[in-house]
Amino acid sequence: MNDIANDMKIRLAVLLILIAPGLAVGTAAAAAEPLPQVRLFTTGGTIQSRGADRQTLMEYNAGKVTPQELIDDLPELKGVADLSYTEIANVGSPSMKTPLLLKLASEVNAWLARPEAAGAVVTHGTATLEETAYFLNLVVHSDKPVVMVGAMRPFTAVSRDGPFNLYNAVRVAATPASKGKGVLIMLNDEINAARDTTKSNTYRVETFVARDLGPMGFADSDRVVYYRKPLYRHTARSEFDVSALSDLPRVDISYTYQDADGVEVDAFTAAGAKGIVLTGGAGDALKRAQDQGVVIVMSDRKGAGRVMTSARVAARGIVTADNLPPHKARILLRLALTRTTDPAEIQRMFNEY
Amino acid sequence: MTLRKSVLCLLLAVPLCGAAQAQEIPRYAPPPPLPADTAALPTVVLMSYGGTIASRGQPRLNITNYGGKENKRVDPQDWLDDLPELRGIANIVLDDARGPADAPSAVYADQVRIARRMNELVQDPKVQGIVLTHGTNSMAETAYYLNLVVKTDKPIVLVGSQRPWTGLSGDGPRNLYDAVRVAASKQAWGKGVLHCMDQFINTARDVTKTKAYRVQTFQGIDVGAIGFADPDQVVFYREPVRRHTSASEFAGRDYPALPPVEIAYSYRDAPGYPIDAMVKRGVKGIVVDGTGAGSPTAEQTAAIKRAQAKGVVVVATARTRGGRVQDTPRRRDAHIVPGDNLPPEKARILLQLALTRTRDVQDVQRIFDEY
After folding, report:
1. Chains A, B: CB contacts under 8 A, how many?
2. A242 within some domain
3. For the structural domain made of B261-370, what CATH number should be given?
4. Where are the extended beta strands (E) located within chain A?
5. Which one of A104, A186, B66, B260 has the largest count of C-beta atoms within 10 Å of its C-beta?
6. ipTM score of the complex?
7. Residues on chain A bordering chain B, Cβ-to-Cβ distance under 8 angstroms
8. Residue B52 among the catalytic residues
9. A213 lies in the same domain as A293
C-alpha cells in the first residue's frame, strides 16, 4: 500500500515537473511571499477510505485515512498553500446529518472570518456532497473560496482520483479568482457551482455535472481558469444564518410515479414535517398537508430544466423549485422555514437562491 | 420501401395543392391580445441578415433544400405579419442588413457593415437591444466577432432556425419571439453578445453549432448555457467572466479589413506544405487545429517553424472541441500561442483582431488569456 502511495507520489511529481513549470514559477515567486493560508476541513468519504486491495473500487471498508495522512500523501501541496486542517468527522455521506452540517458551517465560518484565512477545502463523501455544498453555499458568510472535494475511488486504489482532486481543490481555494463565486465543487479537473451540480453517475470519475449549465471553469495544469460567475444569491449575499441553531425544520421528499397516491405525504405530515418537496401531484394529500400548515414545494424528477410558477400554481399555495433537484429544494426550504412559513415569501427565496 | 414511396409522393404532391408561403404556424389558437400600453414597451431593433429563418421552401416537409431562386425570401416585415405577438413584447424597429438576394454566402464585408450599424444603433438611448437573424452555419463566428468589436452593455442577440420559415414544426417563430424577449430584458445587459435558440441563452464566445439538422444544435461544449428563455421569464444563472463588448480593447472601431489568418487542420500524416502555401500567400497568422490537446504533426511543426521565421504568429487549437489547449513549457519554447478552448474559427477571429494591434507573441498570448 505504501508502495502504491509512493509510486503515485513519484508519478505526480514527474507529471508536475513535465507539464507545469508555470506552477514551478508560481511557487518560486510565492516563496518570497507567504503562501495563502488554506484550511482543510475533513468529513470523510471515499477520498478517506481504504480498500482490502488496490483493485477494490466498492465496499472499501478496510479503514479510514486521517487528515494528516491525506496531507502527508501529497507533499506537492506545500508549493500551493500553507495548509492546516480541522477534522469534523470521518464518515460516509449517509452519516452527514444536520448536527454535523451545522458544526461544519460554524467551523468554516469561524475560519474564514480570520483575516489570515485565504480559503477552505472540505472533503466529503460524494453521494451527498452536493447537498452539503448547497447548504454551505447558503450559510457561509464570506466571499473567500470554499471548495468541496471527494473521490470516486478509494485512497488505496490503482488510478485513484482523490490525490489530484485534492491537489486541485487546494489550488482553487488558494486562487484569488475563486473569490465571490459561491461554494465550489472540485473533482475531475472541473470547477462546478454548488447550486447547479449533481452527481450523475454511480461510479465514473466524471460524475459531477451541472446538467442545465455546465462547469464554471477548470483547474488545468497551466492555471486555474474561469469562464462563468453565478448570478443567484449565495454566501456573502445570503440572508440565512444558522449560527444560533441546533437543528433545522423537518422537510421530507415524496417521489412521484404512476399510481402514487399520497400515502407518503400523509405520513410525513403525521411525523411532523414542516415542509414537503414533491416531484409531481399528490392528490388530496397535498391539500391535507397544507391544511396542517405544511409548506409544499414542487420540484421534478427529471434532473434538468425548471419548474415554472404560474398564477394557478401560486393560487394553490404551491412553491415552485426552479431547477433545483428535490434534495436541494429540501435544503433551501429548511432554511427558508427558519425565517417564514409564507409561501409567497418562500417563492421569492426560490427565485433568488 | 412503402413508407419511403409514400413520403416521396407527399413531397411531390403538396406543391400541386398550392404553395404555402406564410409561416407554418398552427392556426388553431389565436395570438394573445396586445398589451394596452404598447408605447411603454422597450424598443428592440430587429436586424435581418437572412439565414434559414428568412427562407421559404416548398412543400412544408422540405426542411433541407429550401431557398434558392424559386422561393421568395422572407422579408423582415413578413416576420411581423406572421408573428403579431412580437408587437406585444417590444416596439420593433426593422433594419434590413441582408446582402443582395443572389449573394452566395456570408462574407466579411457583411460583418463589417453589421458591426458598424450596431455601433451606431446602440448610441440611440431609445434602443434597448438588438436582435440579428443569421444563418446558423457561421453565426457563432459573427457572434464572437460582434462580441469583440461592438462597444455596448446593451443586449445583442443572434438568432436563427434549423428549419425554414415555412417548414412543418418550424423552430424559427419561437426562436425569434424568444430572442426579442431576451433583447428586451434588463437582465440581459452586460453579458456580451448572446445567442438564443431552442430556449437556451448561450454566450457568443462559448457557443458552437454541434449538429447539422437538429433543432437543439447550439451548445457550449465546455461551459454550458447561461440562462433560458422560458415561458414564465427570461432567467439568467451565470454571466461570462472573459472580456467582451464594452470591456473589449477592440470595441467601438471599424475594421474594414483584417490581417489574413488561415486555419490548418491536423490529422495523422498531415503534411506541412499547406502551411508553406499559406505563408507564400502572405498570411500574418495561422491557427493550427491540432489533434488531442493541440498537437500538430512533425511535418506541420517544421512548417510552423518556417512560418514563424517569416514573422507569422501561430496559435494552437484542439480539434477535440471540448477542453483547453494549455500553456505548456514546450509550447512556450516553440512560441506557439495556446488558443484556450476556442475552436479554430473563433481563434482565427481573435488572432486577426489581435494582429491589428501587435505582432508580439507575449501580447497575443495575453489577449487569448483574457478574451
Report:
1. 76
2. no
3. 3.40.50.40
4. 37-42, 82-87, 117-123, 146-149, 184-187, 190-193, 198-199, 208-209, 217-219, 224-226, 228-230, 251-254, 275-278, 295-298, 318-320
5. A186
6. 0.85
7. 19, 21-22, 193, 196, 210, 212-218, 220-223, 225-232, 306, 308-310, 322
8. yes
9. no
